[in-house]
Write a structure and sequence with these properties.
The protein has 582 residues and is of the alpha/beta class. The protein is built from 18 helices and 14 strands. The strands form four sheets. A six-stranded mixed beta sheet has the order 8-11-12-6-13-14, with helices on both faces. Strands 3-7-4-5 form a four-stranded mixed beta sheet, covered by helices on one side. It has a two-stranded antiparallel ribbon with strand order 1-2. The two termini are 50 Å apart.
């Protein structure tokens, strides 16, 4: 593999099967195997029609050579029947293959989405990518390329194998021997056209492999560079206001052009090797058109075979040579498929590793009796180190207890680990060792400094992460009014990117409205009112104390005035030995 994690003890085919097998054993296996069986049956039917058409070809040209008008018109009618059956089989084979492809893709995408979102793997991979990149592209694009490529290449190989077996027997029977003298000795090669096709295909396949081998690496890189460029454009849209305020258009332009340049350089390399491979494969296929006539022509002119027999031999040779040349004809598709499989494998193994790590640390968060305090024993609280470096410990040997209904303010200098402490309490921080005892059945909600607002209707944004149907419009309107966003109450069904529409303060007010709707038992605010003025901040805290009187409220804030809305203060203090809790 070009990057990331891999299971070296498995062969490449074994790893491909590792990706593919779950679908064929899933709840959809009945429909999947039935579709596959129908596709295979139609493929065999198409090969049989090719055999019949080959025999028709001999009879038709013999009728032309003999000027037999009666056979000529009968054979034309017979051809119409064969062509109709061939067309129907071809159309429905493609239709069913597309159906199987999309069902497999949707199933596999759902599985990866579940694994990516489960155990917060998406968050862990952002902190430590484990050799993978652009998970959105892996799920959206590489899954599609994997399913379509695996089906088309596998079924194509099956078709060519059956065609090879069918037409080798036919070519062996009709090609006849090749007799010649060599150093005064008579030599006879039976069914020499079969051997000619084999030699022609083997030579072409070997040359194709060495000429086109760099395409696998280049296709892999192209997918990555395209994904990086697309992600940069999406990020530019996401932070459009920040870029505009910084007047950072020139810097963003330079960054985008740099990524675009990498695409261009890799694309030119792809063009170069594709040109070389194309010159080989196109020339190879063109020569294959006349090669059988060149090899078998002497038998026709000697009278050993008729014109129909010559065309039958040429057609059978073409089918055998085409089947043997499947590798040559499919090399570009194979290179693209191999690149997508490599990328999907790195993502698959990264997800597995992140999931295993999350499950191995599942004991860090345990249930305590309902109604009891939330308690955290922190052996180590660490920040991720640079690539290849150990994590940096910022807090060790500390304990924190939060009683029910308590209002606690957490303070400390910037960078001391306050937000990271919240992540530990939320159970999402993978660096360090901590044991958090959470009251059984406790409903917790965390409000970060920059709220996440999904693209969609305002109703979805306010009720996130719940479903919009779980709350009445009257309750939603009341929550918006409570946080001074009553002007939005009549826009609940309006769909847009609300993070670009609302100001920073309005977004934080919207997050507070969510808390009012969900009514958590434990509410954590990480600088969640930093974008508000002091009056707005005071209004929010008074509202929370009044509306959620039984909730434990834990805040991170820098403004001194916030302390007045809390019963206790916990400080993270920097000392010579590190950060400690006081």
């Amino acid at each position: 593999m070009a990057e990331g994690l891999s299971i070296r003890s498995r062969s490449f085919i074994g790893q491909v099967w590792q990706l593919a097998a779950p679908y064929w054993r899933s709840e959809e296996k009945g429909r999947a195997w039935a579709l596959l069986a129908a596709i295979v049956a139609m493929t065999l039917g198409i090969v049989y029609m090719l055999v019949l058409l080959n025999d028709w070809n001999r009879a038709f040209f013999n009728a032309l050579e003999n000027k037999n008008a009666e056979d000529f018109f009968v054979l034309l009618t017979y051809f119409c029947f064969l062509a109709a059956v061939f067309i129907v089989l071809s159309i429905y084979r493609t239709y069913l293959q597309q159906m199987l492809e999309v069902r497999w893709r949707i199933w596999l995408s759902k599985e990866y989405l579940s694994e990516w979102l489960g155990n917060r793997v998406y968050y862990r991979l952002e902190l430590d990518p484990l050799g993978t990149d652009n998970p959105d592209q892996r799920i959206a694009e590489d899954v599609r390329l994997f399913t379509s490529g695996t089906l088309s290449l596998t079924l194509g190989l099956l078709r060519e194998t059956v065609t090879l077996v069918s037409f080798v027997a036919l070519l062996w029977a009709v090609s006849g021997p090749l007799d010649f003298s060599l150093f005064g000795r008579e030599v006879s090669i039976p069914a020499y056209m079969v051997w000619a096709a084999l030699i022609y295909a083997v030579v072409g396949s070997v040359i194709t492999y060495y000429v086109g081998r760099p395409l696998i690496r280049l296709n892999f890189q192209q997918e990555r560079f395209e994904a990086d460029f697309r992600f940069s454009l999406v990020r530019m849209r996401e932070y459009a206001e920040g870029v505009a305020l910084y007047r950072g258009e020139a810097a963003e332009h330079r960054g985008l052009l740099s990524r675009l340049e990498r695409i261009r350089e890799n694309w030119y390399a792809l063009m170069y090797y594709t040109k070389r491979l194309g010159a080989l494969t196109i020339g190879y296929s063109q020569v294959a058109t006349v090669f059988p006539f060149f090899v078998a022509g002497h038998r026709y002119f000697s009278g050993a075979v008729t014109l129909g027999g010559l065309t039958q031999i040429a057609n059978a040779f073409g089918q055998v040579q085409s089947s043997l040349s499947w590798f040559v004809d499919s090399y570009t598709s194979l290179a693209n498929w191999k690149a997508s499989v490599d990328r999907l494998l790195t993502f698959h193994h990264a997800v597995e590793a992140a999931t295993a790590d999350a499950q191995a640390k599942s004991g860090e968060r345990v249930a305590a009796p309902a109604g009891s305090a939330l308690h955290a024993d922190i052996d180590e609280l660490a920040l991720p180190g640079r690539e290849g470096a150990a994590a940096r410990v910022i807090l060790a040997g500390a304990a924190l207890e939060l009683a029910p209904h308590e209002k606690v303010l957490i303070t400390g200098p910037s960078g001391s680990g306050k937000s990271t402490l919240f992540r530990v309490l939320a159970g999402i921080w993978p660096f360090g060792r901590a044991r958090v005892r959470v009251p059984e059945g406790a409903r917790m909600m965390f409000l970060p400094q920059k709220p996440y607002i999904p693209i969609g209707t305002l109703r979805d944004a306010v009720t996130y992460p719940g479903t919009s149907g779980a709350f009445d419009d009257e309750d939603i309107a009341q929550a918006l009014e409570s946080v001074a966003l009553e002007a939005l109450a009549d826009r609940l069904d309006e769909s847009r990117n609300w993070s670009m529409t609302l100001s920073g303060g309005e977004q934080q007010r919207l997050a507070v409205a969510r808390a009012l709707l969900h009514r958590p038992d434990w509410l954590f605010l990480d600088e969640a009112t930093s974008a508000l003025d002091e009056a707005g901040e005071r209004q929010v805290y008074e509202l929370l104390r009044e509306s959620l009187p039984d909730a434990t409220i834990v805040s991170i804030a820098h403004r001194p005035g916030v302390a007045g809305y809390h019963d206790r203060k916990v400080a993270l203090v920097a000392t010579a030995g590190g950060v400690v809790l006081e």
